[in-house]
Amino acid sequence: MFDVIIIGAGPAGISAALYAKRANKSVLVLYHGESQLEKAHMIDNYYGVGSVSGADLYHSGIDQAKALGVEVRDEEVLHIAMQADFSYEVKTAAADYQCTALILATGNKKLRPNIKGVSDFEGKGISYCAICDGFFYRKKTVAVLGSGDYALSEAGDLENIVQKLYILTDGKPAPQTDKYEIITKKIAEIQGDERLGSVLFEDGTSLELNGLFVALGVAGGADFAKKLGVALDGDSIKANPDMSTNAPGVFACGNITGGLLQVCKAVYEGAEAGLSAVNYIKSKNK
Prior knowledge:
Distance between the termini: 18 Å
Strand content: 25-35%
Mean pLDDT: 91
Order of helices and strands: EHEHEEEEEHEHEEEEEEHEEEH
Low-confidence stretches: none
Helix content: 25-40%
Oligomer: single chain
Structural class: alpha/beta
């Protein structure tokens, strides 16, 4: 059982980890995939640093956290659930973890696939959260769009609800599973009238569907927020000045909260989130 689990190892997540660890809390940072900071060729507007590559700044932050005693693990987070005592269970591809406070610092990952018709049917047959919307498709035919562990996790949330379930990879290699019918053909268009009706593939064939659940790549902060009932403003998490959300013990910081997408903002919000998580834990222990 960790005091604090942080999802994301960028400036916001690591800053939160440093402040929580310095308050003598047990801290686990989970991350997977390339950070937005790693993609930055050069950072030259951050106080006191001069010019540094995004990758160097990113990895030096992780090294700093590890040196302080923070556990930092490269594991893909697949699912987060609130427990009856308002603690949290975090499931990764490798293990299950529990924590008292949870900090989402994943950056703001845009999930919408570049497929004709997707935007037309969002909320009309296209969903981004199996736990949130799966009930509306009970006994119906649906598909999950994706090819990784996150797509398989979403399929697992749907398999006992729907009548027929497919996984569509849109031309990417099939995931390693024999539980679901997988179609690897490239998608040309999403079609329908008032609601989604079918998926048209580039080879001219089509698949009739009642629903399509998008689960591309790895899950981002907005995906987890939806599953936890955390309020969103578009793709961004609504956070209070202390970085708390409407869910007890859940905090958000960095690009996932919108606004200025800069390292300086991420570091500040991470510090605020780490300190607020510490105060939340103290209040629970009284």
